[in-house]
Amino acid sequence: MAVEPLSQKEIEDRLSELPGWSPDGDRIARSYRLASHFAATAMVVHIAQVQEELDHHSDLTLGYNTVSLTVHTHTVGGVTEKDFALARRIEALAPVHGAQ
Ligand SMILES: C[C@H](O)[C@H](O)[C@H]1CNC2=NC(N)=NC(=O)C2=N1
User: Fold this and answer.
1) Where is this region: Disordered (predicted)?
2) ipTM over 0.85
């Protein structure tokens, strides 16, 4: 997969198709609210499985009933298609966990 940094317009276009995700400096970011701490923790484990599968990892914070994460591509120090591929996979698994 291409790992060239995306332009601001390319990032904005892709974010427009990912409700809840937003630009955050040289990253993209999303926060989820869940029904309990255990639900949030289970979602973190699921995200970790997907990240290992993709070999692409977010920086993630587990709160009482929240999961907050940012994603960027370390090797280029910016946002690439790999970040959006991970974001889409996280969006796809979020409903399983009742994440808002
Ligand atoms: C060696 C390993 O494939 C690389 O370090 C991977 C691991 N996970 C990664 N995750 C992210 N977000 N960016 C990377 O450049 C990256 N590189």
Assistant:
1) 1-20
2) yes
